[in-house]
């Protein structure tokens, strides 16, 4: 499988399966968001958000590190289809919705949610620091979860958001030849 890695251009996709609302973004909105979250968001994330405040990604894949569990595809390809925007509207999901989303599935920790489908999560991990967070993949362990409880597995993807960006790739369409 050929991979085209993200190298600083065309991060955001113009095509998305979901209709998205374009929320304005500026330094004051970012400052308010960081105050609400109680963390400093990575500057490289904020630079991308200033280009487009959330949306689908042109480079949606990353590889999970090798491991020895059966419940999630260690050593396999994982996906982050989009990144939630930063905004203060209550009726639409935002990075500021992180605490509510995590509480809904009983996930605890100082995380800022970039993307989730409620079984898999890509988060900024602020558990041990208030800036320069690691990027974590959190996956539901279907083999140990029950009707009443959900067990989670935590996999560090990258030490920083910048390192995470270097791991993102896309798979080009197959050449018909």
UniProtKB/TrEMBL annotation:
Top-level division of the source organism's lineage: Bacteria
Q: Which InterPro entries match?
A: Knr4/Smi1-like_dom, Knr4/Smi1-like_sf
- SUPFAM superfamilies the record matches: SMI1/KNR4-like
Knr4/Smi1-like domain residues are 24-167
Protein's UniProt name? Knr4/Smi1-like domain-containing protein
Its source organism is: Priestia aryabhattai
């Amino acid at each position: 499988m050929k991979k085209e890695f993200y190298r600083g251009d065309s991060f955001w996709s113009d095509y998305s399966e979901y209709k998205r609302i374009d929320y304005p973004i500026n330094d004051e909105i970012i400052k308010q968001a960081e105050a609400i979250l109680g963390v400093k968001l990575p500057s490289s994330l904020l630079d991308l958000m200033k280009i487009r405040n959330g949306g689908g990604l042109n480079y949606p894949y990353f590889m999970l590190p090798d491991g020895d569990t059966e419940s999630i595809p260690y050593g396999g390809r994982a996906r982050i289809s989009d990144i939630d925007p930063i905004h203060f509207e209550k009726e639409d999901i935002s990075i500021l919705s992180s605490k509510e989303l995590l509480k809904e599935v009983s996930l605890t920790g100082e995380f800022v949610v970039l993307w989730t489908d409620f079984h898999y999560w890509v988060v900024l991990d602020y558990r041990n620091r208030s800036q320069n967070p690691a990027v974590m993949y959190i996956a539901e362990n279907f083999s140990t979860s029950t009707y009443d409880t959900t067990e989670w597995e935590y996999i560090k993807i990258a030490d920083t958001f910048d390192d995470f960006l270097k791991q993102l790739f896309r798979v080009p369409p197959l050449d018909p030849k």
